[in-house]
């Protein structure tokens, strides 16, 4: 992917990896404000390349600098802004919790307090995932990196205490059903029928294992579909309806809560990076 090194210092930009795969990777630069408060159901694993990357997280203002690793937990509210007038540049990989569960096999998702870590185990384990976005990840390399990341997250976070036994198989059946039937009006009753698990226990385990509620999971998968459609040239209205939203305003509300900017602004930043 070719970068335009002649951009003005006031022009924010985001580059997404063009590689089709299970992990979304970006590199971005912001001169001031980046994102409003938002939350998504992936781990956000990042590396500040230059400047100070500031963000509100769990009630405090954090500051990412080169040398540490950002680890934002799924579905935790955060924003993003430059910590100095010099702006900041960073890379981020968005990791579906199900990929971590492929390694952990039903353990609660590891939580890294504060959203930042100086632990060298996390830094080295995340290195392959936050390399330049124009470097394609081979399938084997990605799988190896995901294993290393899951093990490092578990080691750095420590083992949670006081958790009841989780029904990973039922939660995974529910997740697989959702992925195959996004076109339906999915309900907890449906998931209860598919899994044979009482709906509220299933919902609790789903949150612990995948970082978000079943309803949010459905909504965010539809947002993924919407992003693919607008990148392929569909209008916002047509893409919103095709992805399962009631209309553009319904879509915009959910999109902004998830990504911190409205869809047109998100698309504009990507276009600037081309």
UniProtKB/TrEMBL annotation:
<feature type="domain" description="HTH araC/xylS-type">
    <location>
        <begin position="172"/>
        <end position="269"/>
    </location>
</feature>
<dbReference type="InterPro" id="IPR003313">
    <property type="entry name" value="AraC-bd"/>
</dbReference>
<dbReference type="GO" id="GO:0043565">
    <property type="term" value="F:sequence-specific DNA binding"/>
</dbReference>
<comment type="function">
    <text>Regulatory protein of the TOL plasmid xyl operons. XylS activates the xylXYZLTEGFJQKIH operon required for the degradation of toluene, m-xylene and p-xylene.</text>
</comment>
<keyword id="KW-0805">Transcription regulation</keyword>
<dbReference type="Pfam" id="PF12833">
    <property type="entry name" value="HTH_18"/>
</dbReference>
<dbReference type="InterPro" id="IPR037923">
    <property type="entry name" value="HTH-like"/>
</dbReference>
<dbReference type="InterPro" id="IPR018060">
    <property type="entry name" value="HTH_AraC"/>
</dbReference>
<dbReference type="Pfam" id="PF02311">
    <property type="entry name" value="AraC_binding"/>
</dbReference>
<dbReference type="InterPro" id="IPR009057">
    <property type="entry name" value="Homeodomain-like_sf"/>
</dbReference>
<keyword id="KW-0804">Transcription</keyword>
<dbReference type="InterPro" id="IPR050204">
    <property type="entry name" value="AraC_XylS_family_regulators"/>
</dbReference>
<protein>
    <submittedName>
        <fullName>AraC family transcriptional regulator</fullName>
    </submittedName>
</protein>
<keyword id="KW-0238">DNA-binding</keyword>
<dbReference type="GO" id="GO:0003700">
    <property type="term" value="F:DNA-binding transcription factor activity"/>
</dbReference>
